[in-house]
Give the backbone structure.
Amino acid sequence: MTRLLPAPTPSARGVVTATGVALAAALALAGCASATTTPTESASEIPITHVHGIVPNPTEPGFLLGTHEGIFTVSDDGQVGAAVAGPTFDAMGLTLTGDTLLASGHPDFTTPAELGSPHLGIIRSTDGAQSWEPLAFTGEKDFHVLTAGPDQTVYGITTDSSQILTSTNLGETWTPAGSSLAAFNLTVDATGRIIASTPNGLQLSTNNAATFAPWEEAPLIALLNASPDQQRIVGLGAGGKLWVTAAGSAEWTQVGAASEEAQVIAITDSGDILVVERNGITVLPVEDQDSSQ
């Protein structure tokens, strides 16, 4: 089942972020194949030109999309809702820790000036993206990679460095973790294990990102995400293959395939997979997944 994303206007179709280019290139180099889907309607009337991230919605069931046009709601079955009625900005980085959202990116012409320009640094919302406050690096840095662990430690990578930064106070202050990594994505499972997708394959850290080591024999994966309870991890990699693993597991299982248009992916606590593509969201229910591939 595929839900339609609001189509961009002709003048906006070419807008693709640096992160999007990197991820698309990684999937293309891996030999990603396209799939045919049939779109259905979306409740949103705002054109979405690019989706940068998808995180659990802290205020209701479902997820939030971080996009070039702001934050949008999406249900577990892939139905895109309206934009959240808060300040709009280009949400390049987005993560959830507890009930707190942390974001980064760039302002648009309606973004409150106190959030920063030309970069937002780290901003925080405690009301489901209805309002935001500036926290760190205001006007200075742009985090394209953000994720959080089960202990509420937040990990991030800025666009001007490959150094991994960490915060243990909900984004207020940041310190170097000890490692540097050219990572497309970071995600953390329920055991606290940090998984990074890089041009050279998956990397693992079990010491709060102080060091990383290759995940031997893992598939080549570009897109990563964890379920809201962080017990499940989903990845999209070479040949458009969809892979899943469990918290603490050493094994990946292929369960399906997705389009080369994929921008971000998500997995529910029950195992349903959402693939956000250029024109819509495809949902692969757990009962339709094929682990015999």
